[in-house]
Amino acid sequence: MNSNGKYSLIFNGLFTIFMVAPLVVVIGVSFTPTGYLEFPPSGLSLRWFRAILDNPDFIDAAWISLKLGVCSATVSTIVAVPAALAIGRERFLGREALQALFLSPLTVPTVVLGIAFLRLLSLLEINGTFIGLTLCHAIIITPFVLRLVLSSVVGIDQSIEKAAVSLGASGWVVFRRVTLPLIMPGVVGGWVLAFITSFDELTVTVFIVNPSTTTLPVRLFSHITQTTDPLIASVSTMVILFTVALMLLINRFYGLDRLLMGESR
Amino acid sequence: MNRLASAKPWLLSGPALLLFLVFLLIPLVMTFLLSFNSFSFYGGIEESYGLGNYIEILSDSYFYEIFLRTFLIALGTTILCVLLGVPEAYILLRMRPFARSLMLLVVLGPLLISVVVRTLGWSILLGNKGVINEFLIRLDLISSPVKMLYTSGGIVVALVHVMIPFMIIAVWAALQRRDASAEQAAESLGASPVKVFTRIVLPQAMPGILSGSLIVFSLSASAFATPAILGGRRIKVISTTVYDEFLNTLNWPLGAAIAVLLLVSVLVIMLSWNRLVEKRYSGVFE
User: Fold this and answer.
1) Does domain B46-280 have CATH number 1.10.3720.10?
2) Which one of A15, A151, A248 makes the best mutation probe of the B interface by having the most chain B beta carbons within 10 Å?
3) Chain B closest CA to A80's CA: distance in Å?
4) pLDDT tens-digit readout, A53-73
């Protein structure tokens, strides 16, 4: 392994600044004692963090986003795991088409998905409902779950399952006791990635929420486009801290590179 | 037994298929049909079919400008992502394992943080009284603030920040399979680092650069949050125009037609790009 030269390290340093600058600025601004966005802050104050508590709008939105993330990631995992088992190990006509269909939400522009969901939900008269949001989010995040589960399905040793079958285990017992534990890292990794994607989703959600189901990204977005007070910075800081905590957790148990880059190392 | 075996994969993927049928395929077809309906401010959406919306869009220079701007922003973002992402991916690969896993957190972490939050950061950085302008004025490099917020350039910078992890992941995947001894051989024969990079590393990174560019381009062309926050009402792109048609003007059929045109152009660009790549690199992907 040859190491990087001087210019490479300078490039890497500048690149790091570029990547973290917007986050550092948001966190810095949130500690301002003044009533406007200033960086660096002229003092250190928790004023705008206390302000979050006085704004039930943001707290309600955060709860909705959390619940929505958990529900949609769970729905998506429940349908994606069997689908991944079918696509990953069976050979059947239409297998590739099925896989392409389940990955297609990654290719369709999100704004197109947003209006398509809006059209469907308003015809079904469930627009703005939590159940409608959950199912639409499940569509958007299923590709992530499917990809991670698929990569662990392809990797498992089928002889272990054959051994279980030959010892008399039923299909369900084999799945529950042998297959599922083997693909668990992919399932958990997929669920977490799906949760984060749902938690952050804006473009689709902005079309299909109503005032009582407004999610945190939508609330932040409409706040940013209307006013600029440091409240958005303190809420954003909380979002950053929450995401970083989740990220460190994944990195510890699954590996962030594996989660985002697939099973390539 | 045989019939059961052939039904099994369909039973397993049945729930997902049902969900995708009802919540993806049907709505997409409905949106496509909607784009042929007409709209009046008093009657709302009318159940008649025609090409009126498409003719309106294709003959109006206002929409033409929006489409051109969107694709230029996407192109600029893609080029910058290649120029910055490829060297960064190579530097990451050459790092020691500990430094590398730390840097991967820095590079890939932002991917998981809300785009709204990251764009807020850019609007604080880019504003007329923003961090960058204040800094440059203090250094006496400029005398009056440079306008960066509410410009296409500002949108490109923020989009590069959002998209570059995808480029790095793609290039990383391509370079990981490379044979590092070729670089060492070139170095021992006296090639300069720049030459090693352009003649040995770059050709091997090419498949990753091409697939990464495709992802970055299509995601940038349909990005919403970044242009909506940093462009305001003045710098409109396709997705923000669709948003306005749906939620402000309430002309759904016209909005649907714009969205269909976006989908079609992204698909056409992706397919022709893929064909181009397959022709050029037919031997590489074996």
Assistant:
1) yes
2) A15
3) 6
4) 888 889 999 999 999 999 999
